[in-house]
Specification:
The complex is a heterodimer of chains A (about 140) and B (about 130). With about 140 residues, chain A is α+β, with helices and mostly antiparallel strands. Chain A has 3 helices and 7 strands, in the order αααβββββββ. Chain A has a 4-stranded antiparallel β-sheet, with no helix packed on it. Chain A has a 3-stranded antiparallel β-sheet with strand order 3-4-5, with no helix packed on it. In chain A, a hairpin with a 3-residue loop joins β1 and β2. By secondary structure, chain B is mainly beta. In chain B, about 5% of the residues lie in helices and about 40% in strands. Chain B has 1 helix and 10 strands, in the order βαβββββββββ. In chain B, strands 1, 2, 5, 6 and 8 form a 5-stranded mixed β-sheet that branches. A 4-stranded antiparallel β-sheet of chain B has the order 3-4-10-9, with no helix packed on it. In chain B, a hairpin with a 2-residue loop joins β9 and β10.
């Protein structure tokens, strides 16, 4: 019999954990069913990540998140330490078991955003978030006397 | 049954489609009386979708007309502007006349009813 030393920092387990953190949905049974038509699923964005666009103009930042199939009541928007997090639950209403899966995407937001004035709207599978800039952070033109 | 179209079998029936386009994510659910195709079409409005069926090929084309105000500056971009194009081969058992499609929350649902003659039937033994 061979005795090996117990190694609490087993490398392969750490790798697995890391993978689990990066792809929190890996291993969930619901995915087996969603992946029924595998090739098509990989044709656009990889699953597990909500695609985002960020724009700005003089007075606002704008963030668009791609969340098709998600209803308004299944969206949670949170701002914490300059990190804007969008968590959505997509319910597969048409599947037998009423399965659902949850996805999160976070984007960092400059400290020049007026936190209390952030607004959001869901339209055609896109979540539009408007983040007004603080007055004193806006660029100002100084008149030369 | 709805099958994914292979490149050589579909190109022959392809008309001049605007390019480039990407294949959207889609799911298929089958029941005895109908097949359902759910297609993710984010940033698409109802008017910009065409659903055609010709020679047993279901074609879904969705144009994305994305309008960004000229004074907006893009800081980070991941969303695609490409149009969506999905082609699926459909079997003869589909009742083409009674197909219908609806768009909700950026997902198009196409319902393909199965013809009565194609439904499984039990024959009574006399």
């Amino acid at each position: 019999m061979k005795v090996t030393r117990f190694n609490p920092t087993n490398v392969s387990r750490l790798v697995d954990l890391n993978r689990r953190t990066r792809y929190p949905l890996s291993g969930l049974p619901a995915f087996e069913q969603i992946f029924e038509h595998l090739p098509a699923f990989f044709s656009t964005n990889p699953v597990g990540r909500i695609a985002a666009d960020i724009y700005e103009d003089k007075d606002h930042y704008y963030a668009d998140f791609e969340v098709p199939g998600v209803k308004k009541e299944d969206v949670a928007l949170e701002l914490n330490n300059q990190l804007l997090s969008v968590t959505v639950v997509r319910r597969e209403a048409y599947s037998d078991g009423g399965q659902s899966h949850s996805l999160t995407r976070s984007v960092s937001v400059p400290h020049t955003v007026k936190d209390e004035a952030i607004s959001a709207k869901l339209e055609n599978g896109i979540l539009h978030v408007t983040l007004p800039k603080l007055e004193d952070s806006k660029p100002r033109t100084i008149e030369i006397a | 049954m709805v099958n994914n179209c292979t490149a050589d079998s579909c190109n022959s029936s392809a008309t001049a489609e605007p390019l480039p386009s990407v294949e959207p994510r889609y799911y298929i659910r089958s029941a005895k009386h109908e097949k359902r195709v759910m297609v993710d079409l984010p940033r698409v409005t109802r008017e910009d979708i065409t659903v055609d069926i010709e020679q047993n090929v279901l074609s879904i084309h969705a144009k994305r007309s994305v309008w960004i105000p000229s004074d907006w500056k893009a800081l980070h971009r991941e969303l695609s502007d490409s149009d969506f194009l999905l082609r699926l081969r459909v079997s003869n058992e589909i009742d083409v006349e009674n197909m219908n499609a609806s768009l909700a929350d950026g997902v198009l649902t196409v319902v393909l009813p199965v013809k009565d003659t194609a439904k499984p039937r039990r024959i009574e033994v006399s």
